[in-house]
Amino acid sequence: MNTTHPTAQQRRLRTAVKRLVIELGYLECCLDEGLLDVNIHAAAVGLDSAVDRLNDYLAQDRAAQQVA
Predict the structure, then answer these.
(1) For the chain, how far is it from start to end, CA to CA, in angstroms?
(2) In angstroms, rounded to a whole number, what is the distance separating the alpha carbons of residues 63 and 56?
């Protein structure tokens, strides 16, 4: 059984992703409640993209560690 322990960088990135998800949820609530602002919408899209990219990076990093 190959167990890997996350590095400090991975832990910090996961913490950042969690904070981004919380903020994204807040922005989405604002949009759902009728705040029709182009900048808020763009921010939500940007956060969503950032979360996706960070999750992809962390998944690739995890897979690389398991192979090693």
Answers:
(1) 13
(2) 11
* Residue 19 CA: distances (Å) to CA of 4, 48, 49, 68: 24, 12, 14, 30
Range of the domain at 41: 9-67
The tally of domains found in the chain comes to: 1
* 43 CB-near residues (< 8 Å, 6+ apart): 27
d(CA 30, CA 9): 32
pTM: 0.76
- Work out the mean pLDDT of the chain and round it to a whole number: 88
